[in-house]
Amino acid sequence: MAEYKHLEVEKKWQQYWQENKIYEVSIDPSKPKYYILDMFPYPSGAGLHVGHPLGYIATDIISRFKRLKGHNVLHPMGFDAFGLPAEQYAIQTGQHPAITTETNIGRYKEQLTNLGFSYDWSREVRTSEPSYYKWTQWIFKQLFNSWYNKDSDKAEHIDTLIASFTKTGNHSINAVCDDDVPAFSSADWNSWSEEAQQRMLLKYRLTYIAETTVNWCPALGTVLSNDEVKDGFSERGGHPVVKKSMAQWSMRITAYADRLITGLDKIDWPEPIKDMQRNWIGKSYGAEVDFAIENSDKKIRVFTTRIDTIYGVSFMVVAPEAEIVQYLTTPEQKQVVEDYIAVAKNRSERERMSDVKTVSGVFTGSYVLHPFSGEKIPVWIADYVLAGYGTGAVMAVPSGDQRDFDFAKHFDLPIVQIIDSQKITDTEADATKEGRMINSGILDGLTPPEAIDKAIAEVEQKGIGVRKVNYRLRDAIFGRQRYWGEPIPVHFKNGIPYLLEDNELPLNLPEVDKYLPTEDGAPPLGRADNWQYKDGTPYELTTMPGWAGSSWYFFRYMDPDNDQEFASEKALDYWQQVDFYMGGSEHATGHLLYSRFWTKFLYDMGFIKVDEYAKKLVNQGMIQGRSNFVYRVKNENKYVSFGLRKEFDTYPVHVDVNIVKDDILDMEAFKSFRPDAEDAEFVLENGKYICGWEVEKMSKSKYNVVNPDDLVEKYGADTLRMYEMFLGPIEQSKPWNTNGIEGVYKFLRKFWTLFHNNREDEFVVSDEPASKEELKILHGLLKKIEDDIERLSLNTSVSNFMIAVNELGALSCNKRAILEPMVITLAPFAPHLSEELWSLLGHNETIFNASFPVFDPTHLVEDSFEYPIMVNGKMRAKIQLGADLSKEEIESQALAHPNVQKWTEGKPPKKVIVVPKKIVNVVV
RNA sequence: GCGGAUGUGGCGAAAUUGGUAGACGCACUAGACUUAGGAUCUAGCGCCGCGAGGCAUGGGGGUUCGAGUCCCUCCAUCCGCACCA
User: Fold this and answer.
1) Which nucleotide's C1' sits nearest to the alpha carbon of A352?
2) Which of A97, A310, A504, A647 could form a disulfide with A484 if both were Cys (CB 3.0 to 4.6 A apart)?
3) What's the pLDDT at A345?
4) Spatial distance between the Cα atoms of A498 and A538, rounded to a whole number of angstroms
């Protein structure tokens, strides 16, 4: 009997696509463009598991659908090829990371090809290729050559800043820059040496070197950005991370903090992602106020969002790392303060965080004076105050802030109620904003919001404070003490960085003997011979972080081979921005934020015309592992089936999910999986060994990795693709479960047999016109499929296919009139299968560029409405109505229908919507 | 603690604007065909009940002729942020 040979068919068509460059696209102004993008993968050594392609399958379906709707679809793929695993493998084995990366990419491409994706591989990019990172370096140069002008609210070329300095100094400049910039005049500027001028400019550049507290990971020997640290451990590898002060390259992303928030309003991204970004940026409105230190000309500046509570301040707290500490500490307190700071320094970030509840701190011996009341207020040091946020000092209001409250209780400091409605208990402060101010001098009787305005006006008038917006977002650390990354295109003269010329790019990654730091602790690039500029000055030793290359790759796909520009104006104008971006939500505060930052920068500088790169973003859910277990009896070579395990003293043992089907263990395979089970005894239920299961992360050690290659081999790519869609909503996370894949496989065979002779492997199609019933099935399907795909309900569209094919199968329908639109409809799901059929029809030329109006079924009037009415005595019916009839006419037409009666029970429906042409359909 | 999401049969799940809850698939049951098979086909399949019928979308309450869907409240699970002043 003839059957569908998926392996032959798929291989044949993949070859055909490749040879005929079917999926290569070029600029075509006659068609609307559609740019649909997947997050490019890091090619790890483990290859793709069954979870990775989920998003790729969805975007491939939409790509094919859009092509059939007449769009010119850009659907590229590439590799985020710089990364830590290849470097660590290199450290262990000495193998150059480029070789490892090349091998892994080869494997990835093979797997992706087997899955039948319609990528334009001619546009592939790899971030580790010099022809690509040349342009990453070029963008770095642009950032270095720019400053952020708050007045125009955009980045500008550094020359405009130099021009101002030369003419008027920095008095009229309103820039985002380092905190320690002094005021200077044009005379000052012009008198400075070249070196001094460069040092000053560095404080303004959008990428700059500054002494900053960084996340240092000793195990990895490198710094990490905030988003690469999770709970005090490195995201990759899970090594402890400590704070350390170092001179570092940074990117002034904080300049864009506000625009990164407001920009979210105009893009169609999932609300959780937007919230995470807003949270991460952490904008808060408040004020900064100076508290003068008693018997000193110094002062402590604090940031507060609740300046209304200023009369409730009963002490001040300064972070242990704050510079001001040295001026505050009195001789008597010197020892305890130094001890406390030493302890705080040695505590890792992790310890500090896990120890949130312990209250600790020391008194400095100094007092400040309350700016309004002039009262003496003691100054303490405590590590609950973070050096990195605000000014590193807080005014403590124990009545309104829980942390201040706990501190006050612990050290027996006064707690003053300042709002009449405050309910302060023995253990809890009350942060209310309701009520009226009390015990608050000039603020008495005001509501807190009024008090905020009045207090700010007061401090501004006194010149001791200012209204201030604060952000949680920090500048992004840009240098990594690693080998496998983009070299930073600068060289140093007298410690000042100078850029390489454009024609000196790319600055290629040099060869090194080992991928480890040098003996004196310099990064691996310190091992390279002649790592210096042509004039003999040294190059930078750190490389760029992983997010550099991925922050602009979506533009490179538009014009990947261009060696004059990162992409031509023509390509950028045509493709504009990504219309549909699919990827994981784990990149919310990393890649997805950094690339918005770079996009806005490139926009400011006029290189691109969009300031958001992705119109719509969808997060595919994560596929988790579904581990299987067998239950071994303690101290015996005996395994008990799941249902009986409680009758014995057992413990669960992971078993390879690939030797378990429908939770039934293949006992023979198990014996070779665990050789020591060769002579094991199995306690069965109903003659079967049933395994238990649990949802865990997919990983080799849990034996729950399902390899897509095996499934493609067994069932074909089409089956796997459809099954992954069938699994559930695309956005939802779910455990992988191969149970049920047979159902999809059966469906595809059924479809194939509709048009193939049962006895011989022969394609048979009838030229008879389709019957009314057959057409109804077809058009119903077309309508549903279009709706399903457009609202991204790919799981139901698979179901709808199955239903239609089953119905047609029941009618033994093999008509050409059905087949052609079916094939187009089916194409997004079963590219190999359907295109095979299509070619047999002799249309293989057209399918790939076709624009058929098949998705416009005209038998239903658009904008139809429902009119609730009784049908068959039940209180429910939908009547779909056309336009231009009165309510009475509609009703009489409806009532003319044999099954429809007038509404009689209860109140009439509230919603009586009547309008359009005529009654087109009564749905019972 | 703050923010977000999810909760429907034995399982994955459908239900597009409030209108026959459980489509489709898996698993299961019975039957047919068969060289007895992990193939194919047919039928059944939420729960209780012989039945008529009753009860069912995490729990409780509300709006409505009508609620999985809208509102209030509680519970559970998952994710993100977390001493951010």
Assistant:
1) B83
2) A97
3) 73
4) 10
Q: Is cis: bond before A506, omega within 30 of 0?
A: yes
Distance A507 CA to B56 C1' (A): 69
Chain A 747-766 residues in 7 Å CB range of strand B: 747, 750
Closest C-alpha to A54, from A580, A831, A620:
A620
DSSP per-residue string spanning A283-342 = EEEEEEEEEEETTSS-EEEEEES-GGGGGG--EEEE-TT-TTHHHH--GGGHHHHHHHHH
Instruction: Enumerate residues 6+ apart whose C-beta is below 8 A from A97.
Output: A86, A87, A89, A90, A483, A484, A515
Q: What is the pTM of this model?
A: 0.88
A215 touches strand B (CB under 7 A): no
Percent of chain A with pLDDT strictly greater than 90: 50
Confidence of residue A832 (pLDDT cuts 50, 70, 90): confident
Structure tokens given for A781: 């399907």
Distance A806 CA to B26 C1' (A): 17
Candidates A288, A287, A260, A255; CA nearest to A273 is: A260
Q: Which residue has the tokens 């296919």?
A: A801
Say yes or no to pLDDT of A881 above 80. Answer: no
pLDDT tens, position by position, A510-545: 999 999 888 888 899 999 999 999 999 999 999 999
- Cα separation, A498 vs A202, whole angstroms: 10
Q: Which nucleotide is nearest to A802 (CA to C1')?
A: B24
**pLDDT, tens only, A586-626:** 899 999 999 999 999 999 999 999 999 999 999 998 888 88
User: What integer best gives the mean pLDDT of chain A?
Assistant: 85
Q: What is the pLDDT of residue A861?
A: 32
- ipTM comes to 0.93
- DSSP H or E run through A408: helix A402-411
- Nearest residue to nucleotide B1, by CA–C1' distance, is A402
**A318 beta partners:** A381, A393
Give residue for tokens 């402590």: A300
Contacts of A86 (CB under 8 A, 6+ apart): A97, A100, A101, A104, A484
Residue with tokens 């972080």: A545
CA distance A320 to A386: 8
User: A717 CB contacts (<8 Å, ≥6 apart)?
Assistant: A6, A10, A114, A115, A116, A832
CB atoms within 10 A of CB A127: 27
- Which H or E run contains A826? helix A816-826
How, if at all, do strands A734-735 and A623-633 pair? parallel
b/e per residue A735-756 (b: at least 16 CB within 10 A): bbbbeebeebbebbbebbbbbb
Strand B–CB A785 distance below 7 A: no
Nucleic chain B contacts, protein chain A, residues 801-840, CB cut-off 7 A: 802-803, 806, 810
- Which are the contacts of A795, defined by CB distance < 8 A and separation ≥ 6? A725, A726, A727, A728, A729, A730
The number of C-alpha atoms within 13 Å of A726 and in the hemisphere containing its C-beta is 22
* Separation between Cα atoms, residue A542 and residue A248, nearest integer Å: 9
A407 touches strand B (CB under 7 A): no
Which 586-615 positions of A have CB less than 7 A from strand B?
588-589
How far apart, in Å, are the Cα atoms of A259 and each of A250, A277, A469?
A: 19, 12, 14
Element at A19 (helix H, strand E)? helix A6-19
- Residue-wise pLDDT for A94-118, tens only, equals 999 999 999 999 999 999 999 999 9
The Cα A383–Cα A394 span in angstroms is 12
Could you tell me the distance in Å between the CA of residue A25 and the C1' of nucleotide B72?
Answer: 55
Burial code of A549-571, b = ≥16 C-beta within 10 A, e = fewer?
bbbbbbbbbbbbeeeeebbeeeb
Does the pLDDT at position A849 exceed 70?
no
